[in-house]
Amino acid sequence: MESKAVDQQPLSKNAQKKLLKQQRYESKKAEKKALLKQEKKREGERKRKEWEEKLAAAATEQEKQQLIESRKCLRKERMEQRSHDKEKKMTRLTNAKQNGQNVVIDLEFDNLMNSSELHSLVQQIMYCYAVNGRCTSPAHLWLTGCQGEMQDQLQRLPGFDKWIIEKENRPYIEAFQDQKERLVYLTADAETTLDVLDPKHIYIIGGLVDRNRWKGLTMKKAEDQGIQTAKLPIGMYLKMSSSQVLTVNQVVEILLKYLETRDWKTSFFEVIPQRKRCEDDNDIEWKEETEAKDDHEFKIHDIEREEEVEGKDDHKMKIHDIEQEETEEKDDHEFKRQCMS
C-alpha cells in the first residue's frame, strides 16, 4: 500500500512544467508533420493535374508519346545527376578526413539537457553535416563523447550510419590525448580572440543548447583540462543584439565560410541571422551589397529539406523513385486507354 501511495505522489511544480513543455513540443511536432504531409499531397495533385492538362493539350498521338518519352528522360537525368552529386560529396568528405580542418563537436553535456533540447542539438548536427557536405573544401568533423540518449537520437536519423564523419564514444580529451597541445576550445568567455584558423589546431565546439543557463561552463571545462581557449572575433565586425552565444550549426558554418573566404566579416554577416545583430551603418551597407543573396534562414530551411532527402538510405530513395515512376506510368497508360476508347 505504501509503495502505491508513493507511486501516486503528485508531480512537483518543476516536473509539471517540464511535462507540459514536452507535451506542447510533441503536439507542435505532430501538427507540423501533418501540415507538411498535406502540403506534399497538394503539391503532388497539382503536378499530376498539370501533367494531365499538358497531355490533353497535345494535338496528336505522336506529340503525346514524345511528351511521355521526354518526361522519362528528364527523370532519368535527374536521378543520374543526384547520384553524381552524391558521389562527388562523398569524395570531398573522404578527402577531408586526410586534409580538412579538424572541428570537434563536444557531446558530453547530454545530462544537462532535456529531450527537446537534445532533439534540437541533433537537428543542429544534421545541419552541420549538410553544410559541410556542400562545401568545396569541407572540414573534418568529429562527434566526441557520443553516448546515452544523444547517441540514441543520432542513430535514429535516416542514413546516420553512412555519414562520413568521425563518431567517437570517448571524450575528446581521450581521443586526442597525444595532441592535447593542439586542442582549442571555442567559447565566448575566452580572453584570446581567434585571428586565423590554424590547420594544425583542433577546434572544439560545445554541444549545448540553452547555454544561458550554463554560462562559463565550457570555459571552466577547458581550464580544468588545461587546454587552450579562444573566441570568434565577432565584436570586431558587428554588434550583437544579445549575447554572443550562437548555435552549434552557426559556429560550424562560420568556420566553414571562413575556410572558403578567409574573411571573418563575410563569414559573420552571411551566417549570423539579422535578428541577432544590432543594425548599424555597417549592417545597412552590407545589406545593400548582398541584397541579391538568399536570407540565411531560408538557406537553413533549404539545407533541412535537402538533408531530409539525402539523409534517407539508398533503399528508401529507390523505393520512392520506383513508386513515383509506377504512378506516372499508370497515369500515362490510363490516358492512352482513354484516347483509344
Task: Characterise this structure.
The protein has helices spanning 2-7, 13-57, 61-99, 115-134, 148-155, 172-175, 217-225, 248-261, 264-271, 281-289, 296-310, 314-340, and strands at 102-106, 140-144, 166-168, 183-186, 202-206, 228-230. The model is unreliable at 1-7, 291-305 and 307-320 (pLDDT under 50). Helix 4 (115-134) crosses helix 5 (148-155) and helix 4 (115-134) crosses helix 11. Strands 3-2-1-5-4-6 form a 6-stranded parallel β-sheet, with helices on both faces. It is an alpha/beta fold and 341 residues long. The protein has 12 helices and 6 strands. Residues 23-51, 288-304, 312-322, 330-341 have a biased composition (Basic and acidic residues).
What's the quick description here?
It is an enzyme of class 2 (transferase). By secondary structure, the chain is of the alpha/beta class.
Give the helix/strand layout.
Layout: H1 2-7, H2 13-57, H3 61-99, E1 102-106, H4 115-134, E2 140-144, H5 148-155, E3 166-168, H6 172-175, E4 183-186, E5 202-206, H7 217-225, E6 228-230, H8 248-261, H9 264-271, H10 281-289, H11 296-310, H12 314-340
Parallel strand pairs: 1-2, 1-5, 2-3, 4-5, 4-6
Q: Could you say which structural class the secondary elements and strand pairing correspond to?
A: alpha/beta
Q: Strand percentage, roughly?
A: 5-15%
Q: Can you give the mean pLDDT?
A: 81
Helix content: 55-70%
- The overall strand count is 6
Give the H and E element order. HHHEHEHEHEEHEHHHHH
- Rounded to the nearest angstrom, the radius of gyration is 25 Å
- Global outline: globular
Number of helices: 12
Low-confidence stretches: 1-7, 291-305, 307-320
Distance between the termini: 77 Å
Main-sheet strand order equals 3-2-1-5-4-6
- Report the sheet with the most strands, covering strand number, pairing sense and barrel closure: 6 strands, parallel
EC number: 2.1.1.221
Enzyme class: transferase
Catalytic activity: guanosine(9) in tRNA + S-adenosyl-L-methionine = N(1)-methylguanosine(9) in tRNA + S-adenosyl-L-homocysteine + H(+)
GO biological process, one term: tRNA N1-guanine methylation
